[in-house]
Amino acid sequence: MKERNIRFVEEKDIKSILNIYKPYIENTSITFECKVPSLESFKERVNKISSFYPYLVCEVDNKVIGYAYATKVREREAYQWNAELSIYLDDKYISMGIGKILYMALIDLLKLQNIYNVYGVITLPNEKSVKLHNKLEFRTLGVFKNTGYKADAWHDVIWFEKNITPYNDPPKPLTNINEISKTDIEAVLSIYNQKLNSK
Prior knowledge:
- By secondary structure, the protein is an alpha+beta fold.
- It has one domain: Gcn5-related N-acetyltransferase (GNAT) (Aminopeptidase, 3-Layer(aba) Sandwich), CATH 3.40.630.
- 33% of the residues lie in helices and 30% in strands.
- It is built from 5 helices and 7 strands; from the N terminus they run βααβββαβαββα.
- The chain has a 7-stranded mixed beta sheet, sandwiched between helices.
- It starts with a strand and ends with a helix.
């Protein structure tokens, strides 16, 4: 059986991540990004996100085959307890259950940061991603009709929402992922790596 592993992103992974992302830009409407970023600008993007939120990679036999991360939903301060999720897999590893486990690991790490709500934003049609969010009991918020134009067509975008932390008044302070105890982080990753390797 091939060894599988979820861990935090490292600089050495960035070229592999960009290579996974590139076909989504060039051949699909799944991302509304239309031009492949340079390696340098993509590196800056990854470093900025991972300076506060979890940015995970999934390896199979030491090769990066997918990644998932969270970002800020809106800039205003009162929105800080929300995060938007993103996930991309090498197409050879889609529909194997890896994406679900990677997404669940990301969500549990966000709980450690005191994130309360997470959002999935999906270009339609994307049956597999819609199915993933439904399996994980996300709630459908609504559809932005004809909100993006790519590949000679207008596309709808569906928003999903999931509450992951019981609401407090006032809310718990938001914590940078890099300030969370390594023991707590490793405990989460260990759970999902066991799930990943038992498939």
